[in-house]
């Protein structure tokens, strides 16, 4: 039965990694601006865009 | 008279004529055209491809050299966050950004100004973060570059506030609490189904200890703000809401610890984490505010950072705070006078729209006093400061210590939760006493702690926070932005609504224009528009816009007479356009029946006049009728009583209408109403309403354009939804109903829980089921009831 305890702890640790990733992204400011990043990716940066 | 409208390629405003064009692109003003030229030269025209007319009108561009103060080290250091000689980091607030074109352009600044290494936009905060090379460029040049393309940064002496940090902490707390809550519940499964006795014996103890480890961060980190607030309450001897919550968390935690370590019994860590998790979510939903709206601006936000000080012949930029009495300062076109001052040199035409909401300029001759907050339109002025910036006529209204406590201390929630806390404590004591008398001490301790756990007022608090969150969200969707949740009960209690006139119920920049007199032939219209194009007076601009596009005729010579009008020679005719006195030569009073008139004459013969009347907001009369069914109504105006008949017609006989009200009068009027037990809501837009807004129970600032500065207030409303204020007030009143419904619901649950708890036999499984079901139930009830009551706000115009 001890194996259940071990697996429970291991699964908790794995989940904790994801929690850490979430906290990292929060601290990194990923959720601060919900407009700029989704739009930024749509800009194709060809250099010339001169109108006549 | 308005025919086909040509939209400006840059900003989309209608062009009054076709004289500004490049290729097939038309521009409304030289400013817009200039921006286009700059962008085109630097191959940045993707800006125009992403969105049609992405720009903001550039009709009012500032003076060259107005950023000279950015050479000053003290000013620079307030903007710069980091510099090492190779790189300088600065964050600027750019309220004009509004679309993906703005985003694109602002992140390609390096093409415009090689000294800028990179620029990155935070769109929700309306900020731009720039890394520049101090060897190649200066802060001043960067700011000027931004201003050149129509994104003049808003430079405030207070600097940019950082509220992101606090939001981040809460998000982290919620994540951890949620993680621990879910995992403790999972680990408690064997305990819930303790029928599986074999399993329970084997692993139950280990799982409980893991649960303890998971509960520690929740108790010590996530729940911190409850303990801190509760402690503050204890220190000031006030019974606050967080006290009961902190007590429940503390008791649950200690009881579980005691059970675990000494009795080897069951734990309630899942309940505890659940309480913390749901409470934190509730607080988050309630505190979520608009980051780009600022509710507590003081007078300084309206003033420039620095001003040109003249000493002898030397002119140096100094910070406003360094201004002293008798200093001579320079003020240019479109600049705000930072302190009460006497006009020394130049002809002032001061636009007090910031101050009074009135957009027509006042003319002041040398020797006259100009109050701080007015904006000069026209030539350069020299002024002598008579009062320091922080002691001016208007600023003292801000500084007045009229800040009323608006944290909802008298609200239903506050009273209810106090009663509830008291009730729970009494019940707990009674249960404990009962078992003590019966001599069953174990059961007594059981009953004491579990009653507190199950009957903690969390349900009530959850109901309140989630209801407030939902109400604020729905109001925000319909255009009313609340400063905090405390405004909701204050709104519900309102029984007197006071409206400012100019700019609040009227549209300050929109006139209803009618022409009276001899008909104007098309060629005469062309003459008039050609001459008017040289006038900067708002009335001229309004008439010009009204006349629409007409072919341009060369103006041979013209002369602007401040406060009077404009005259000039156009196509061999002598045109005079302006006030009655100016055009007709008599001195009869000009303004009749609340309108302004613009007269026209050619070669000395008066043709007729344009009558410009304030336009009221659409649906205003209906709104006033509706709102008077529930509350008293007053209208205060700084103007003369010319508009009285029209206004009275709309309000009906019941409303109070007062004219010639100074800011001080408005403030006193509110105070008088409050002394007569009235709960007053004030809606106003100008600095002149600041005192009244502050004194009121609910002060709402009216905002017509994005990025416009609003005075300090409890809420900000979009101008176009002002006429739905009555529905919003009604909706705010419903918040208490929603809380009561959720409250009844949670009482039912609590009674079931109490049935077990009072007998001292609450099993963890009961606690574990009751707690989340009641919390989630409350979340759902508040959500659906809020949407139901708010459905009226949703329908119709947004």
From TrEMBL, chain A:
Q: Which NCBIfam families match?
A: ccoS
Identify one Pfam family in the record. FixS
Q: What is this protein called?
A: Cytochrome oxidase maturation protein, cbb3-type
Looking up InterPro entries in the UniProt record yields: Cyt_oxidase_maturation_cbb3
Automatic annotation (TrEMBL), chain B:
| Main subcellular localisation | membrane
**Pfam families tied to this protein:** ATPase-cat_bd (PF12156), E1-E2_ATPase (PF00122), Hydrolase (PF00702)
Location of this chain's protein in the cell: Cell membrane
Which GO MF terms does the UniProt record name?
Answer: ATP binding; ATP hydrolysis activity; copper ion binding; P-type divalent copper transporter activity
Specify whether tRNA processing is a keyword of the entry: no
Biological processes annotated in GO: copper ion homeostasis
Q: Which UniProt keywords apply?
A: Cell membrane, Ion transport, Magnesium, Membrane, Metal-binding, Phosphoprotein, Translocase, Transmembrane, Transmembrane helix, Transport
Show the InterPro entries listed in the entry: ATPase-cat-bd, ATPase_P-typ_cyto_dom_N, ATPase_P-typ_P_site, ATPase_P-typ_transduc_dom_A_sf, ATPase_P-type_domA, HAD-like_sf, HAD_sf, HMA_dom
Q: How does it sit in the membrane?
A: Multi-pass membrane protein
- What SUPFAM superfamilies has UniProt attached to this entry? Calcium ATPase, transduction domain A, HAD-like, HMA, heavy metal-associated domain
> Is the keyword Ion transport in the record?
yes
HMA domain boundaries: 88-154
* Origin: domain of life: Bacteria
Q: Name one GO cellular component term.
A: plasma membrane
Q: What parts of the sequence cross the membrane?
A: 171-189, 209-227, 239-261, 267-285, 419-437, 443-467, 737-758, 764-785
Family recorded in the similarity comment: Belongs to the cation transport ATPase (P-type) (TC 3.A.3) family. Type IB subfamily.
User: Cross-referenced NCBIfam families, in alphabetical order?
Assistant: ATPase_P-type (TIGR01494)
Q: What is this protein called?
A: Cu+-exporting ATPase
Look up and give the organism this protein is from: Niabella drilacis (strain DSM 25811 / CCM 8410 / CCUG 62505 / LMG 26954 / E90)
């Amino acid at each position: 039965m001890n194996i259940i305890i071990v697996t429970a702890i291991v699964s908790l640790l794995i989940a904790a990694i994801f929690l850490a990733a979430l906290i990292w992204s929060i601290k990194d400011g990923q959720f601060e601006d919900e407009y700029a990043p989704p739009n930024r990716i749509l800009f194709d940066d060809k250099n010339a865009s001169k109108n006549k | 008279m308005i025919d086909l409208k040509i939209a400006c390629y840059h900003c989309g405003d209608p062009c009054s004529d076709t004289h500004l064009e490049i290729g097939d692109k038309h521009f409304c003003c030289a400013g817009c055209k200039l921006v286009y030229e700059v962008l085109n030269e630097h191959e940045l025209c993707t800006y125009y491809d992403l969105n049609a007319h992405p720009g903001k009108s550039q009709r009012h561009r500032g003076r060259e050299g107005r950023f000279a103060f950015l050479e000053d080290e003290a000013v620079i250091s307030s903007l710069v966050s980091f510099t090492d000689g190779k790189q300088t980091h600065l964050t600027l607030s750019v309220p004009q950004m509004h679309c993906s074109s703005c985003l694109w352009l602002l992140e390609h600044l390096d093409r415009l100004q090689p000294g800028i290494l990179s620029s990155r936009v935070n769109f929700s905060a309306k900020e731009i973060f720039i890394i520049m090379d101090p060897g190649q460029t200066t802060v001043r040049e960067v700011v000027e570059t931004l201003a050149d393309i129509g994104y003049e940064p808003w430079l405030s002496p207070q600097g940019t506030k950082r509220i992101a940090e606090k939001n981040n902490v809460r998000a982290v707390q919620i994540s951890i609490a949620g993680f621990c809550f879910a995992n403790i519940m999972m680990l408690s499964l064997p305990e819930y189904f303790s029928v599986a006795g074999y399993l329970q014996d084997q692993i139950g103890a280990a799982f409980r200890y893991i649960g303890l480890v998971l509960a520690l961060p929740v108790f010590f980190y996530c729940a911190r703000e409850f303990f801190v607030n509760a402690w503050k309450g204890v220190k000031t001897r006030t019974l606050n809401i967080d006290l009961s919550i902190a007590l429940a968390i503390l008791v649950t935690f200690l009881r579980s610890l005691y059970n675990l370590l000494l009795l080897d019994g069951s734990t309630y860590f899942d309940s505890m984490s659940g309480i913390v998790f749901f409470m934190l979510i509730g607080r988050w939903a309630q505190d979520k505010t608009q980051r780009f709206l600022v509710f507590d601006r003081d007078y300084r936000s309206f003033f420039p950072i620095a001003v040109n000080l003249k000493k002898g012949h030397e002119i140096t930029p100094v910070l406003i705070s360094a201004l002293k009495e008798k200093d001579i300062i320079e003020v240019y076109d479109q600049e705000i006078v930072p302190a009460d001052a006497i006009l020394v040199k130049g002809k002032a035409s001061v636009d007090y729209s910031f101050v009074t909401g009135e957009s027509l300029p006042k003319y002041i001759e040398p020797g006259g006093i100009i109050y701080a907050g007015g904006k000069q339109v026209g030539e350069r002025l020299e002024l002598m400061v008579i009062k320091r910036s922080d002691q001016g006529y208007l600023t003292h209204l801000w500084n007045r210590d009229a800040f009323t406590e608006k944290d909802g201390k008298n609200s239903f929630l506050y009273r209810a939760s106090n009663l509830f806390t008291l009730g729970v404590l009494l019940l707990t004591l009674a249960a404990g006493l009962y078992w003590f008398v019966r001599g069953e001490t174990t059961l007594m301790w059981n009953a004491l702690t579990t009653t507190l756990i199950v009957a903690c007022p969390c349900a009530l608090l959850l109901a309140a926070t989630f209801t407030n969150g939902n109400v604020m969200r729905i109001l925000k969707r319909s255009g009313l932005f609340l400063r905090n949740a405390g405004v909701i009960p204050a709104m519900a209690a309102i029984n007197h609504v006071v409206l400012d006139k100019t700019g609040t119920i009227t549209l300050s920049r929109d006139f209803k224009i009618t022409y009276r007199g001899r008909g104007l032939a098309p060629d005469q219209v062309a003459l008039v528009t050609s001459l008017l194009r040289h006038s900067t007076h708002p009335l001229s601009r309004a008439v010009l816009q009204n006349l629409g596009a007409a072919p341009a005729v060369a103006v041979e010579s013209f002369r602007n007479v401040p406060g009077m009008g404009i005259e000039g020679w156009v196509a061999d005719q002598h045109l005079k356009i302006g006030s009655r006195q100016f055009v007709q030569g008599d001195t009869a009073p000009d303004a009749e029946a609340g309108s302004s008139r613009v007269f026209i004459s050619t070669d000395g013969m008066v043709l007729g006049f344009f009558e410009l009347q304030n336009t009221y907001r659409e649906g205003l009369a209906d709104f006033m009728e509706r709102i008077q069914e529930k509350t008293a109504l007053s209208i205060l105006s700084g103007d003369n009583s010319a508009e009285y008949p029209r206004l009275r017609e709309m309000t009906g006989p019941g409303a109070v209408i007062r004219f010639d009200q100074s800011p001080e009068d408005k403030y006193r009027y509110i105070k008088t109403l409050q002394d007569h037990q009235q709960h007053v809501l004030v809606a106003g837009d100008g600095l002149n309403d600041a005192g009244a807004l502050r004194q009121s129970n609910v002060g709402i600032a009216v905002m017509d354009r994005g990025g416009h500065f609003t005075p300090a207030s409890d809420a900000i409303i979009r101008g176009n939804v002002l006429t739905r204020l009555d529905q919003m007030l009604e909706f705010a009143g419903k918040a208490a109903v929603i809380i009561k419904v959720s409250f009844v619901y949670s009482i039912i649950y609590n009674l079931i829980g109490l049935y077990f708890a009072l007998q001292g036999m609450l099993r963890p499984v009961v606690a574990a089921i009751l707690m989340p079901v009641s919390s989630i139930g409350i979340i759902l009830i508040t959500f659906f009831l809020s949407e139901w009551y708010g459905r009226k706000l949703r329908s119709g115009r947004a």
